[in-house]
Amino acid sequence: MDRITDKIANLAKALNKPSEPNDEYIDYATLRKQYENQANQEIGQLQQRSKKARVEAIHGRSDLNPKWTFANLIEDSDDVIEAVSIAQSFIAAHDDPAWRQSGSHMMLFYGDYGRGKSHIAGAIAHQLIEQYEISVLYRQLSTLLEMRYSSYDFSATDNIGQKFREANQELLEVDLLILDEVCVNETVLKKNTQSWLGNLLRQRLVNKKNCILITNHSLGELEHAMGRYCFESVKEYDTYKVRFQGPSRREGLTQDEAEAQNITPRYQPNQVR
Fold first, then answer.
1. pLDDT digit string (tens) for 234-272?
2. Would you give the distance in Å from CA 147 to the centre of its chain?
3. What is the 3-state composition of the chain as percent helix, strand, coil, each rounded to the nearest 5?
4. Regarding beta strands 136-140 and 238-244, do their DSSP bridges make them parallel or antiparallel, or are they unpaired?
5. pLDDT digits (tens, 9 = 90+) for 127-169
6. Distance, CA of 93 to CA of 112 (rounded, Å)
7. Which of 127, 147, 112, 110 is nearest to 64 (CA)?
8. What are the residue boundaries of the structural domains of the chain, listed by start?
9. In CATH, what number does 63-244 get?
10. Contact between residue 130 and residue 171 where contact means Cβ atoms under 8 Å apart
11. pTM recorded for the entire structure
């Protein structure tokens, strides 16, 4: 009886097609395994491309500074080293489903300007997006409040009311909300603002959504500025308080003292002499 390879060779010869009689015969089981491996590789590549697309979409909506990463962070003081350690523990905890379902968690970063608070918060967010596809929103509280106040202008023609309602819904639903500049330049928030922010934090608490609050106030000043009702909602979270007190990392724009001494006053229009 002719082998299958011989039959194929004879058929190829009859059709004037090239044949390779020296090719090794591959049985069905081996061939099936090869096809399964190839299919699994293609599925894996498709999953990687899909994840990359999802991660890029989350990054696109987050409004994070792309430079806020741990790789770009200079750990040059004890407070930053401690903050990074706490941040890494917070990220690692997301590996535990029980921790993620146990309730709402909040990181509270406080300290003076230029200490690296926003940078570390952004680094946390970037890593959570990459590792766990956590949805993130970075917003400055003052910008949200301006939008909120503008939404009361019923004569506006830019549909600001609808835009704020959509933005507010997004604040409620996102997995991690980063609120920066909380109560900046504010001794105390207005009562209606305290109620709005307090309700926002309480609803996120109920829905087990996490937050990072960043402020230049001390904790005592922050409690006064936010108001008791609003600050009580902060205390309901499983809170990690991180104080930043090292040197400012922002480059100064002031002139050199020697250069400043050589500057002579210039005449200005309408100057009283």
1. 999 999 999 998 667 776 655 554 454 454 444 444 444
2. 21
3. 55, 10, 35
4. unpaired
5. 999 999 999 999 999 888 888 877 766 676 677 778 888 888 9
6. 28
7. 127
8. 27-61, 63-244
9. 3.40.50.300
10. no
11. 0.73
